[in-house]
Amino acid sequence: MFYAAESQASFQLNLNPPFVGGVSYFNTSVPQQILRRLDNGLPVSDPFIPVNNPSGTINALPADRPIGYVQQWSLGIQRQLATNLLLDVTYVGNSGNHLQDLHNPNAPFLGTGPVAQRRPYFATAPGIVAFNYIDQRGKSNYNGLQATLTKRLTNGLQFLTNYTWSHAIENTPHFFGGGSHQDERNLEADRGSSGNDLRHRFVFSGLYELPFGKGKTVLTNASGVTNALFGGWQLGGVFVTQSGSPYTVLGGAGRPNRTCDGRLDNPKVEAWFDVSCFPLPAAVPDVVRGGVYIPFGNSGNFVLPGPALLNFDCSIQKTVKTGESTRFEFRTELFNAFNHSQFLNPNATVNSGLTGRILNARDSRQIQMVLKFIF
Question: How many whole angstroms separate alpha carbon 87 and alpha carbon 81?
Fold first, then answer.
């Protein structure tokens, strides 16, 4: 069990009335405008927001707020397949409770009429726009199968491979994935996949010392210029492929309706998901104020997967010994070596004109070179 270390930076209660407010004076030289001088002293009027008539945004938290915690468990088995080869298969699970949820209890009810009058605390404090309210009502769980194959260094080769099949779920979408609540008063409607839920992830990393040069299989007795040219070469690489990060379709009062799955068999940059599966809810009448408004939709958080990631980084290193304890190392590193397109999630706001289109991508190939002298 692990207790969550939670920061309250920029969330001090002393940022509430009557400790906030003030008056600012700005003197300008061109054109010259002197609004206040030092010999005028402090203003006579109270510049702070009165506590009996608060306004703006209020920071708040419950007095009996519990501490969030995560319970974790695992069960694994290891098998030595060869002298230098180890297989590890492990089930990993965890459950988070009382996770921090920053929300606004003063969010206006849906309907027609002035927004301020639809806020729950308007009658008591009409000047308050919102509450930054920290509540420990979040929950999460994770279940994953992790398989690892490790080869220790022999004959100049070592590598590590890992495959993870997992699913992460939460009901506070901003805690892990940067989302937000659709309805502050219906937390369970936000329960779904976590924003960092990656169902499948495979990683291979390895190093290989080429068998050329002094003491190696080829040119084992090489020395001088021959060894300097052909010896001391090392290749390295990291290959990563994983499922796309999930995203939320937005529109209307928060999220639209979801009438079908929404995933396409052959998604493209111009159309990554089926927009027709996410219509806005039909308008409903406001029986109190009259008129009609768009209600909340039934689509959930992080319901669609984004573009998968396929990336290969590699390095080539050359070592030249110049003495017993001195050597040069020259290394060339290529990130996204094959310059494979790595698209980010599409625009997912319905009726935006760009709905379903991918507009951004990760960096293209980058190359860096390093020369190091070790002594």
Answer: 7
